[in-house]
Specification:
Layout (H helix, E strand, L loop, with lengths): L1 H7 L15 H17 L3 H8 L5 H10 L4 H12 L8 H13 L3 H13 L8 H13 L3 H9 L10 H13 L3 H14 L5 H13 L3 H13 L8 H12 L2 H13 L6 H13 L1 H4 L2 H13 L6 H13 L3 H14 L5 H13 L3 H13 L6 H13 L3 H15 L2
Helix pairs in contact: 2-3, 2-4, 4-6, 5-6, 6-7, 6-8, 8-9, 8-10, 9-10, 10-11, 10-12, 11-12, 12-13, 12-14, 14-15, 14-16, 16-18, 16-19, 18-19, 19-20, 19-21, 21-22, 21-23, 22-23, 22-24, 23-24
Keywords: Repeat
Family: Belongs to the PPR family. P subfamily.
Length: 409
């Protein structure tokens, strides 16, 4: 295996991946093997030296990305790669290892690497996305002062203070309930001429709603609207999603009802969030009936829901054992809503199989193939085995014949 990897990752691989005569699957299999060595081999450097591979920036980046959940091993691999005279680190690999170490709370190793880069007189520049990941990691680990310091020193990394950096620092402040500082940061954004986006609004609204400060969230949206910075989506939709994220389901339902009474329907994303939250709460509070009524009202008003909107209701009904209601509702949605897609059929077949309803699952397999949707192999196997165990050998044979006709095996 080592000889195969050495051959695949040797000199010919310094060319582009699209070069003729080089199978991509073999190359990525070799990358996977090197990644496993980095993650699991105690004597990593010795094993990698035996491979005698050609260390290229592309190889280093792909391995670092594959090992992003192993920060110590990733750093050892990066240091090993830098010892090769033919390898010169690029900003892509450097940003990847910096982000990996920051997410793992290994800031001492991260800054040691940065200072070493400076001592070598190498030009150090980080993209806004990479520096934002460092700021976000500091905020996640409750190191707000360090997050602010990195933001203020962005110029040292040749990184402009763009919207991603502001949003990352805003997330760090909101995560630590520093709302006054977060609001001051938004005012600084406006003074600097940086226009907020949906993420900016959602961060503050979600933070205020999570603390039960709905009034402050409304005042913030009103003030931003008065300043001429209208959010990319309607303010009420942001408030509904903020209440849902904070767990205030009843308040979100009440706001949606008021919007509908006033003739202001929520947008599709907000409606999706409401229905999905109600269905997820079905096992605890039995709210699936509320989601069912909400979706029916939505269709009666002439709207056509997408599968992502009515799939959570069907799944919740199946989990409660109400398969007849789920089948009936699915039939209504096929007539009134957008056509079901492959993930929806897969979910429905899986739920039927778990409940022992293999005949219904087989019917849905036939139905989706008539629509031009190909069932996954797991569905075929589950339905075929279930039908055979239930004594439905003729129907199982039909399902097997269908799979053979589709896959040709």
């Amino acid at each position: 295996m080592l000889r195969i990897c050495a051959k695949l990752l040797g000199a010919p691989w310094t060319r582009s991946l699209t070069s003729a005569g080089t199978p991509r699957d073999e190359y990525f299999a070799a990358i996977h093997h090197v990644s496993n060595i980095v993650r699991r081999d105690f004597y990593m450097e010795r094993t990698l030296n035996k491979l005698r591979i050609s260390v290229t920036p592309e190889l280093v980046f792909r391995v670092l990305r594959a090992c992003s959940n192993s920060p110590t091993e990733s750093l050892r691999f990066f240091n090993w790669a830098r010892t090769h005279p033919s390898y010169a680190p690029t900003s892509l690999e450097f940003e990847q290892i910096i982000s990996t170490l920051a997410r793992a709370n290994k800031y001492q190793s991260m800054w040691s690497l940065v200072h070493h880069h400076h001592r070598l007189s190498l030009s150090l520049s980080l993209s806004p996305a990479a520096l934002a990941s460092v700021i976000h990691a500091y905020g996640h680990h409750r190191h707000v002062d360090h997050a602010v310091a990195v933001f203020n020193k962005a110029s040292l990394f040749r990184c402009p203070q763009t919207l991603p950096l502001y949003n990352a620092l805003l997330s760090a402040l909101c995560h630590n309930s520093l709302f006054h500082a977060a609001y001051a940061l938004v005012r600084r954004m406006l003074r600097k001429g940086v226009a907020p986006d949906k993420t900016t609004y959602a961060l503050l609204v979600n933070a205020w709603c999570s603390c039960g400060k709905l009034r402050e969230a409304k005042l913030f949206l009103t003030e931003m609207s008065d300043r001429g910075f209208n959010p990319p989506v309607r303010g009420r939709d942001l408030l509904v999603e903020g209440l849902l994220n904070a767990g205030y389901v009843e308040s979100a339902k009440g706001m949606v009802r008021n919007m509908i009474k006033q003739g202001l329907l929520p947008d599709v994303a907000t409606f999706n969030a409401v229905v999905e939250t109600l269905c997820k709460s079905a096992e605890e509070g039995g709210m699936v009936d509320e989601a069912f009524r909400l979706l029916n009202n939505f269709t009666e008003d002439g709207h056509r829901p997408f599968p992502s909107l009515y799939a959570p209701v069907i799944k919740a009904l199946c989990r409660r054992g109400q398969f007849d209601d789920a089948f009936c509702f699915f039939g209504d949605m096929k007539a009134k809503a957008h056509p079901p897609n492959r993930p929806l059929y897969t979910m429905l077949i899986t739920m039927c199989g778990r409940a022992g309803k293999f005949v219904e699952a087989a019917n849905y397999i036939f139905e989706m193939t008539e629509m031009g949707l190909v069932p996954i192999s797991r569905c075929f196997d589950m339905v075929t085995d279930g039908l055979k165990n239930s004594g439905k050998h003729d129907l199982a044979k039909r399902v097997q014949e269908l799979e053979v006709s589709i896959r040709g095996v």
